[in-house]
Design a protein that fits this description.
Length: 247
């Protein structure tokens, strides 16, 4: 009997302890909100769905390279002379057409690493957290503003420009090679002419030198001397003869 009364009092005390907690919270303001009618206020640095402002995107690919799970896919096409892509809101000149900018948000781990390297601050986290889908494909967000036809046209324009540029390059290289060959040929002919001229000059000089030199032929010299001697002898004999006759 004593044990029964003890347990009765213990039960009664426990009820009062529980009721005290209930009574205390009866006058505390409610923390439950009527979601989805009422939305909770998010913290300042909340990470949710990504958004890309394509007007400011320059297609630099830095966000895609920073992503640790490769959930950003970007394709760009170079602009051709005459294309006007305008400038970003922070004054950067745009030079690339962005023909693909997909973010697979199903893969995204909300690390925000893609946001920091962006030079134009055009990719950022939004406060949108309600984007559940029945199909997984619907979680791949396409931010490109060009239509598929426009993207194709941009690609085609660039290919044509490349072909034209290559042709111009080849023509310029050919012209350069032709000019170099012509110059080489001209140099060769000039050199040949100079050689011929030099040869002629040498010949003329050697001819002139041989004409100016005295006649020192070995055959002629003794003849001259012998002739002179014989003349002298003859002269002497002629001189002597009358004297002998006189005697
Ligand atoms: S938040 Fe992280 S995972 Fe998501 S796209 Fe950016 S870098 Fe990739
Ligand atoms: S880093 Fe910024 S500007 Fe560069 S491709 Fe990504 S979103 Fe565009």
């Amino acid at each position: 009997m004593r044990n029964y009364i003890l347990k009765f009092w213990q039960g009664l005390i426990t009820i009062f302890i529980g009721m005290r907690v209930t009574l205390r919270h009866l006058y505390v303001p409610a923390v439950t909100i009527q979601y989805p009618t009422v939305k909770p206020e998010l913290p300042e640095r909340e990470r949710n769905r990504l958004y890309v402002n394509m007007d400011d995107c320059i297609g630099c690919d830095q966000c895609a390279r920073a992503c640790p799970v490769n959930c950003i896919e970007i394709e760009t096409v170079k602009s051709v002379p005459g294309d006007d892509l305008g400038k970003t809101s922070n004054g950067k000149k745009k030079a690339l057409w962005v023909t693909k900018f997909d973010i697979d948000i199903a893969k995204c781990c909300y690390c925000q690493l893609c946001v920091f390297p962006c030079p134009t601050d055009c990719i950022y986290m939004t406060d949108v957290y309600e984007f559940s889908e029945f199909k997984r494909d619907n979680l791949v967000y396409d931010f490109v503003t060009l239509t598929p036809e426009e993207s194709e046209q941009k690609k085609k324009n660039f290919e044509e420009f490349q072909i034209k540029k290559e042709a111009e390059k080849a023509a310029a290289a050919k012209k350069k090679a032709e000019e170099a060959a012509a110059m080489k040929a001209q140099e060769a002919s000039t050199k040949k002419e100079e050689e011929v001229q030099a040869k002629k000059t040498d010949e003329t000089e050697s001819k002139k030198t041989s004409e100016d030199k005295p006649n020192v032929k070995s055959e002629d010299k003794p003849i001259e001397k012998s002739e002179k001697k014989s003349d002298d002898k003859n002269e002497g004999k002629a001189d002597d003869k009358p004297e002998m006759d006189k005697e």
